[in-house]
Amino acid sequence: MKSQNNKDGPLKGLVVADFSQLAQGPWATQMLGDMGADIIKIEPKKGDWMRHYSYGNLYPKGESISFVSFNRNKRSIAVDLKDDEGSKIVRNIIAKSDILIENFRPGVMERLGLGYEEIKKLNPRLIYCSSSGYGSSGPYIKRPGQDLLAQSISGTAALNGKKGTPPVVTAVGQADLLTSLNIVQTVLAAIYSRERTGKGQKIETNLLNSIIGFHIQEITAYLYKGNNPERSESGIPNPWLGAPYGLYNTKDGYIAIGMGSVRKIAAIIGLDKYDSEEFDSNNIIEGRDEIRNDFGVVFRTKTAGEWLTVLLENDVWCSQVNTFDDMVDDPQVAHNQMIIDYEHPTIGEVKTTGFPSYFSDTPQQIFRPAPLLNQHCDEILSEFCGYDKQQIDQYLNKINMN
Description:
Elements: E1 15-18, H1 24-34, E2 38-43, H2 65-70, E3 74-78, H3 84-95, E4 99-102, H4 108-111, H5 116-122, E5 127-132, H6 147-153, H7 174-197, E6 201-206, H8 207-214, H9 216-225, E7 246-249, E8 254-257, H10 262-269, H11 288-299, H12 304-313, E9 318-320, H13 324-328, H14 331-335, E10 339-344, E11 348-353, H15 377-385, H16 389-401
Parallel strand pairs: 1-2, 1-4, 2-3, 4-5, 5-6
Antiparallel strand pairs: 7-8, 8-9, 10-11
């Protein structure tokens, strides 16, 4: 998929003033941009923090692979928010925006004169979204908010891993990206409300609430039972679940077994030990580690492909366990077009993930690559602030000198 300039997504016409950095805000605004919204990325003079940090220290042609991952379909302008001209520029952008998204620490926007109470006088129809680590008030207001910390406070890390081993956090920034999804659904709900009332409003999201809300089933079960779930010794990946659920080693890789009758699967793989009604269950907690270990011995006798053929023929919930190498070549992933590419002005071809949702009449597309810092300064100043060429040149000189 190559970059296109003819955007016509379902959110065409919405303008987003994007003050966010790192992951939780930028992925949210990228999703809005993928759906056609005009994302004005307002960056400090040195750029979004993510321009100077990257997973794996990967900087093709000097560009952060992490920044590129979260910032396609945006226009960039560099602004000093503490400068009088910078303040006027962003206020002009906000005045013509439908949505504002920021994830500074609580109180920063107010100190800059850009808090909601001030801004709603400028633009009463604005949807103003603040996202933080723990919320805009409370005992943790001065603490740094970050994904690892939110996973730890929420109890999520204590769910993962084996009995007797340390807690385990997920490799993906789960709290960050869940918050991104909450930002998108919340601002769109507020836009719908504005269509009915004509009024904007302030909304808030945070990492801690997002990840706690995501674990609704696990936490509700704990509140009913009254004690912490106990992780299994053999590595069943959810402490609330029993055998046969989990990943199993084979001759040449791993397979995953979802919900399924212990008795049925044991019969299929030739394990007579569990041929009785007491094992006719898909979630046996008592003795789950012994069952898992017995299954594991049998699964190591054949290849993953051989077991999948047998299990799928018998309608067992199972799958291969892909590495990234496997996943990008997976036939269903290819069919869903979940690996796509676009051209970046510095890097060249960028391969990335596709669009997780589908619109029949207003398809999502990549019409802009992740922007270079301040790349769209001239068009943004002209469009939102009415600057002429001389004023734009003066501003560029000012930004570049300081």
